[in-house]
Amino acid sequence: MAVIHDTTMHPTKLELLARWLPEQAWYSGSGDGLVRAGGFRLDDPDGEVGIEFMVVTAADGAAYLAPMTYRGAPRTGADGTLIGRAEHGVLGTRWIYDGEHDPVLRAQLAALLRGDVVAQAQSRSNTADPTVLVRPAGRASSAQIKRLLRDGDAPPGNGGYVSAAWRRPDGSNARGIVASAD
Fold first, then answer.
1. How far apart are alpha carbons 40 and 105 in whole angstroms?
2. SS3 of residue 20 by DSSP
C-alpha cells in the first residue's frame, strides 16, 4: 500500500499542471485558476511508482482528468511525457509523468477495470475511495483514459468503466466516466 506523507511538494502538482495542461492538444483552457476538484489513487504492487488520477477544474468550469505517475528517478524511454520535476519534503526529487503513457499506471488501471484492485483515497494511506465506481470488464487488458469529463457521460457499450466524482467550481457535485475498457 502507498504511504501518503503529510509534507510539502515544490512546485505543487497544481503548479506543474498549470504549466503542462495548456500545452496539450485536448486542453481548451489557459491553465489559470486550476483547482483540485477530486480524484483517486491506485497502488503500485511493487511500491515504487505513485499513481494518481487528479480531477482539476479550470476557471471556465471545465473539468479535466490528469493521470500522473511519480517516480524517484527518470523513466527510460519516456521522452515527451514528463509533466515536471518536484521536490517532495520526505521522498526528495520526484519525476512526475503523464500517466497515460506509463506502463505501471496502465497495468493497474486494467486491474481496476477487471475488479482485481480497489481505488484508494487521494490523501489517506490504505483507505479505499467509495466514491469511485467500477463496472468490471472481466478480461480487460488495457484501458482508454478519458481526459475531458462531462456530466452525465453514458457508460460505454457493454464494456467495463470507471466513474469518479468531483466538485464543480460552484460547489455542486459532478460525476463522469474517467476510463473504460478497450
1. 12
2. helix
State how far Cα 38 lies from the chain centre: 9
Alpha helices in 21-132 (DSSP H): 103-114
Each residue's pLDDT tens digit, 135-177: 887 765 667 787 757 555 555 566 789 999 999 989 999 999 9
10 Å CB burial of residue 152 (0-12, 13-18, 19+) is exposed
Instruction: Identify the bridge partners of residue 148 per DSSP, sorted by sequence position.
Output: 64
- What sign does the CA torsion over 33, 72, 164, 106 have? positive
CB 152 within 8 A of CB 130: no
pLDDT in tens, 76-111: 888 889 999 998 766 679 899 999 999 999 999 999
Place of cell 475511495: 129
